[in-house]
Amino acid sequence: MASNFLRLRKPYYVESTINCSSSSDQKLVNLSFGINETRDQTKKRQAKEHHGRRSCLDSCCWVTGYLCTTWWLLLFLYHCCLPFTVGHEMPELMPAARLKREGLKGIHPVVLVPGIVTGGLELWEGKPCADGLFRKRLWGGGGFTQLLKRPLCWLEHLSLHNETGLDPPGIRVRPVPGLFGADYSAPGYFVWDVLVKNLAKIGYEGKNLHMAAYDWRLSFQNTEVRDRALSKLKSKIELMYRANGNKKVVVVPHSMGVAYFLHFLKWVETPPPMGGGGGQGWCAEHIKAIVNIGPSFLGVPKAVSNILSAEGKDVAYFRAMAPGVLDSGTLGLRALEHVMRVSRTWDSVVSLMPKGGETIWGNMDWSPEDEHVCDFSKKRYFRLSPSDNNVNNSDAKQVFRVKDPVKYGRIISFGKAASVLHSSQLPTAVLKEILHMNASRNFNSSCGEAWTEYDEMNRESIRKIGAVDKAYTATTLFDLLRFVAPKMMNRAEAHFSHGIADNLEDPKYNHYKYWSNPLEMKLPDAPNMEIYCSYGVGIPTERSYVYKLSPSNKCKHIPYQIDTSVDGEDGSCLKSGVYFADGDESVPVLSAGFMCAKGWKGRTRFNPSGINTYVREYQSKPPTSGIKSTTHVDIMGNIALIEDILRVAAGATGEEIGGDKIYSDMLRMSERINLRL
Amino acid sequence: MSFLRRRKGTDSSKSQNLRCNIVKEDEKNNLYESPRKESYNAKKWSCWDSCCWFIGFVCSVWWFLLFLYNTMPASIPQYVTEAITGPLTDPPGVKLRKEGLTVNHPVVFVPGIVTGGLELWEGHQCAEGLFRKRLWGGSFGELYKRPLCWAQHMSLDNETGLDPPGIRVRPVSGLVAADYFAAGYFVWAVLIANLAQIGYEEKTMYMAAYDWRLSFQNTEVRDQTLSRIKSNIELMVATNGGKKVVVIPHSMGVLYFLHFMKWVEAPPPMGGGGGSEWCAKHIKAVMNIGGPFLGVPKSVSGLFSVEARDIAIARTFAPGFLDKDVFGLQTFQHLMRMTRTWDSTMSMIPKGGETIWGGLDWSPEGLSFNCGAKTLRNNSINNTDQIPNINLANMKNVNYGRIISFGKDVAEAHSSKIERVDLLHGVYMIIVDQQDSMKADMLANLTNCDIWIEYHDIGDHRIKAVADYKVYTAGSILDLLHFVSPKLMARGGAHFSYGIADNLDDPKYQHYKYWSNPLEMKLPDAPDMEIYSMYGVGIPTERAYVYKVTTATDCSIPFQIDTSAEGGSEDSCLKGGVFSADGDETVPVLSAGLMAAKGWRGKTRFNPSGIPTYIREYSHAPPANLLEGRGTQSGAHVDIMGNFALIEDVIRVAAGATGKELGGDHVYSDIFKWAERINLQL
């Protein structure tokens, strides 16, 4: 080592002699060095030639070295001090530590069901451009570095087949199974980390804790067709049930995992080949409780803007994960177009579309959230406890009635006017007309290779849709989407349905496409099971959008975009083209809580056996990060939520942890919804 | 910024001359001293600056190279390799895909000892922040950072063989559990990659990861691992259209899977309750790789003194490192304390006693194994036929049967010439001198040794008695181990057995402790199943040891391999106190092949339904150069997992071929000759 060092030092000294000749008074130097032999003279002459390069390069090296050293020093200090600082926070971070002292012990096995985009994906077979990535992460963990290295290749491998919604030929990308070890989690990505840590504290480990990983890009039934994911989950639950002394499992789905698990509940009791053949009573026998976190039971409006234009204020699921990356020029200038192209091959996105149509989401002039107060800057929840909610809300109502109610029901409106005017003032529907025109659309568009389905559309009809002052509700929305993305909707509507069942006994509801829609399925016959809806409230959540035609009408451009110039006055719900309502930043309260608050409460036609439901809301408190945060993903680290989960896993019932806990207007909203039960 | 300003000032000032003078002087005197002298000149390019410069220079160069490396097309290393070694053959997966092979039977991997990763779920204070980090496998970073804490967490409870209180270390699950042991050190990864080439993926591959420190039955008691394997195999068969699984156990996994096959058909509560046809219904083939069916002599020296040429199970993986002072001066003792809490190490004590491993003057390999073969085979890989002819002349009988001998003379002398003092006599002496031994205990206390090795519980007399017995065969080894570490063997004896069954129908053989001993169990009733024994040959493998008593220092292990014992001639089997025989560097051929060659061949009492067995040997050829890494023709115990011929066999079977179609037996060693010499009732 030492000798190595010295050897490297040598060149430096040669160079530093060189430095001597750099002075302006060369003569003087020469004089003082006069006695030198000629060898030195030649050296100096050489040195002169090198003069300019030397100082620049050296100082560069110096600066780099200086920065590195400082950095390492700070890093070292940081590591030295870290244990102390963390030590102070630990007890607060770990509700489990406290509960363990209370004598709580994990009894029921726990199954975690991740949502969209939170599961890792790895490559099993790929094109030549993905050489050397075998069994490396494409999504999650280190996967996003591939996005930077070979963006187009990465996107190609994440796409699914345009028609089947399964693997494209020659590419196999598969979910990473199991509780992927902490070795693999990228900081801030592994959303389950805190929960898993807490569960481990009260005695959970591999044998009674399972992560039901599935490929979140596929439609739910296709995860079974391609990967046998549902069969695997069934076998795993049965095994854990048996291996832990016949203790029923507690299931904790998050976000889209909620819909996935609904699908599973129906699948498992349906006879093969369509179902898992567990028979009636499988759920009653194996499941104690389902603790839905941030459930998107009735869909999210975000999904609409995602499909229509791959944007939304903070939406585009991609961007949430790799912020800044997609907005910069990694993918050339057409980041959004690329995102759209890829995400439109994912059937699962369609499962997130608003369900229940106008009955749930409101029509042109009415919406269940009509009384919502938008002044999120004064988050009124702080000073309120659930008990005095009523009193204060009536005040709020008075204040509010001054203004016109926001027309949340119009999920997409073209132009601000369309979003505020009374419906009678809007032009009558022209979509049918356009559809008719489109039937004879000409394909000789000049765009060459079609990127998105927009390129296959008649530019004329695109403009027509956007030009008219037109608003779309949760029902008419589907006509619009079927028009702009016919292939995708064709494919996906074979797997998902978004309506409300008139008669649940109709045998058509045995088809799997209805299984993930809570309004078109019956809960299993399991009166002792419990269903929790746990979600954050008090954060502005996208609820409807104001759109405009995008300025450029060139090929390979998305023709619509959110009109970010549209703003309401202070305290308005409208900001940069988006109307906000109460929610957890991604899922509006309406979607998350309605089923537990009304649709399934008591014995209804959707819940014939009267499974107990509990609404557990968690209000956001500043600072809205860390352990008290209630945003869609961060809520997984919310200590109140974790405590609830731990208690349920340790055997508590919904009554014992306090029954319903509601801060939002959930109950009033659901009253206003006229759904036959 | 301030720096730059300073630089400018110095450059233009007259001090320039001064510096030049100094540098010149330096040049005249001594180039290496100059930095110090220069640092006198504080305003100049000081020592601190040159340090920065140096670091910056190194970093920049490093980054530049890294950048170049990353921008280099991935195919360049391959070009380079091909230029040097000639064109590479296709990996077997690619080759077989071209032949049209596709996924057929689901595949189950059963990793061996030490290759599976272990992670922390609950630990003591000192392991703060290591939640779900790998303690075993991966980078072994924690071993370096906090060795004592690490050893504490890796140990099991001394009495129960389960978790110590407050510590839960659990196996990593999934394929990641054992695909790589440490960074870049593949175990299953090559096989997995090749299987993926013909279409295998997560739903058709399953890694039956288990905690390899526990006794086999305890993995079920603590983690329900056996139930999990059963449920997973059932699931894979059900979801793949009723196609039976191909099981590929490696090393100790072989024994574990034997145990599983008995467990799954045994009725609950001891067994899995799968019924007597479970194996026939679910398993197509068991392809044992490097299986120590009858144990390995290495485990004896491991248990006896935590050494042997390369053993100490932990040492294999951090070679050179553990010999240094991580644990202070007591490396071995700490390792010994740790490994002795692992019941699984006892599953590999040689089984079958003298019948299999040879007596005092007899051993199956004794007459025909040629220890010089290794050097020869390296030079002429292709003409293995010649070897026996060349060297028959200078072969002499080696007493492999004496697994431990005290002194080289004893190892080579004829049994009639050895004077042995009976161990029982030794025990008697101890009872007589019990007071002495109590004194010895007190002495141990006085000298501040932790009493965690049982050696400190035993007195000098017992040590002397051990040495006086002089020679131990596979049968008396057990007595020896019982004698020197009674607690350990008492714990292990409840889970493992090492004998040969006289009557397999005896109801006592329904107990789980017999399930992993092929000589005390019947194979399941599954005539369509196939059993393969696949192992490397042509590497000298530890078979017997020459020991000596160490001059007693306070806290050391009283016995040591006598590394000074050499065989004399080049071809001798005795090197550094160890007698070698043919094998794969860890498992002798005898242990890996005998069951398939004789014990289970045809319809025997161990194999009542006549399950066909096949021996597939792979002759070892070391990698030709460094670029080949660990080689594609290796026969070494772990490296064989990258052997192309073996991988091809596995893939063919997974794609549906039978043993006959593979070509039946494929033997290089003298295993059949040795098997004949073993007098085992069938």
TrEMBL record, chain A:
SUPFAM superfamilies: alpha/beta-Hydrolases. InterPro entries: AB_hydrolase_fold, LACT/PDAT_acylTrfase. Transmembrane segments: none annotated. One of its GO terms (molecular function) is O-acyltransferase activity. GO terms for biological process: lipid metabolic process. It comes from the Eukaryota. Coiled coil: none annotated. PANTHER family: LECITHIN-CHOLESTEROL ACYLTRANSFERASE-RELATED. This is Phospholipid:diacylglycerol acyltransferase 2.
UniProtKB/TrEMBL annotation, chain B:
The keyword Transmembrane applies. One of its GO terms (cellular component) is membrane. It comes from the Eukaryota. Its EC number is 2.3.1.158. The chain crosses the membrane at residues 51-69. Signal peptide: none annotated. GO terms for biological process: triglyceride biosynthetic process. InterPro entries: AB_hydrolase_fold (IPR029058), LACT/PDAT_acylTrfase (IPR003386). It is found in: Membrane. It is an enzyme of class 2 (transferase). It catalyses: a glycerophospholipid + a 1,2-diacyl-sn-glycerol = a monoacylglycerophospholipid + a triacyl-sn-glycerol. Belongs to the AB hydrolase superfamily. Lipase family. This is phospholipid:diacylglycerol acyltransferase. It comes from Gossypium klotzschianum.
